[in-house]
Design goal:
This protein is mainly alpha-helical and 162 residues long. Helix content is 82%, strand content 0%. It is built from seven helices and no strands.
Length: 162
């Protein structure tokens, strides 16, 4: 299935989608492509807010805003790998039997699956600015991320392994 279809299905049945990805041949480059695509879409999602910031403070050059944002997002890559490792290890406290690959799949897929909602969040921040609307959209994005990640962890760490 195409990634877009999998993303849409993740909003309805995230465990099914994760099971399908887990059943495919293990591929670290595929997992990294999920993370990279999510970070790329997060970067694009920041453009409206960066344009708003540049409009409000024109003395800050736009290329500098873009470069700073891109470098900041690129620097989060090791953090996401470390987070997946730590959460995978923490699941063992609750009798989780999965491995690091499954933990990375659950986290990276959850990030990739919510990236379209992050685009909406970026538009809200760029058009309306900070406020209750932006906070509400951010809360929805985080809630969807948490649900998809939890479903992924359930499948990869607690189901079907001996």
């Amino acid at each position: 299935m195409a990634a877009v279809e999998d993303i849409l299905r993740s909003y309805r049945r995230p465990r099914v989608v994760i099971r399908e990805h887990l059943a495919r041949m293990r591929s670290e480059p595929r997992l990294f492509s999920f993370l990279f695509s999510a970070l790329l879409l997060m970067f694009v999602a920041q453009w409206p807010a960066l344009a708003r910031q540049h409009f409000q403070t024109p003395d800050v050059p736009m290329p500098g805003l873009f470069l700073g944002t891109a470098l900041a997002l690129a620097a989060t890559t090791p953090f996401f790998y470390a987070l997946a490792f730590l959460v995978t290890q923490a699941t063992r406290l609750f009798r989780g039997r999965g491995d690091g690959y499954g933990g990375r799949l659950a986290l990276f897929w959850a990030l990739f699956a919510v990236s379209p909602l992050m685009l909406l969040q970026g538009l809200t921040q760029g058009m309306i600015g900070p406020g209750p609307q932006a906070n509400a959209v951010a809360a929805v994005v985080f809630a969807v991320f948490a649900v998809i990640w939890a479903a992924g962890l359930r499948v990869t760490q607690f189901e079907g392994r001996t």
